[in-house]
Amino acid sequence: MDIDEIIKALAHPVRRELLQWLKEPEKHFAEQEHPLEVGVCAGMFERCGLSQSTVSAHLATLQRAELVTTRRIGQWVFYKRNEDTIAEFLRRIGQEL
Fold it and tell me: Which CATH class is domain 3-96?
């Protein structure tokens, strides 16, 4: 886990909002056709009003920081929060600061 990479990823409000939405996918993505257990389809994030390429860049940043995991099913990519990394990050920040 790279704490600096995570802090950089969390520095942007859109990325924090994406993580908040992923925390309760049934509340924010109930209209998704695929089961939410596999994650949220990348296309569902268009709700934030940004272009698909911008959303993809934000999701890639979250993935590099290991804050989300991905799963490819056919042509679709699904995203889920990486709760283990988030919990470890919060624990370490709590110890170090």
Answer: mainly alpha
- Rounded to an integer, the average pLDDT of 25-46 is 87
What are the E-state strand segments in 1-97?
A: 40-41, 68-73, 76-81
Mean pLDDT of 85-96: 94
Question: Domain boundaries in the chain?
Answer: 3-96
pLDDT of residue 48: 72
User: Residue 70's beta-bridge partner residues?
Assistant: 79
Q: In the Cβ-directed half-sphere of 55, how many Cα atoms lie within 13 Å?
A: 17
**Buried b or exposed e, range 69-79, using 16+ CB within 10 angstroms:** beeeeeeebbb
Rounded distance between C-alpha atoms, residue 36 and residue 91, angstroms: 27
What CA–CA distance (Å, rounded) separates 65 from 7?
Answer: 9
More confident residue, 70 or 48: 70
How many Cα atoms occupy the beta-carbon half-sphere of 62 within 13 Å?
A: 28
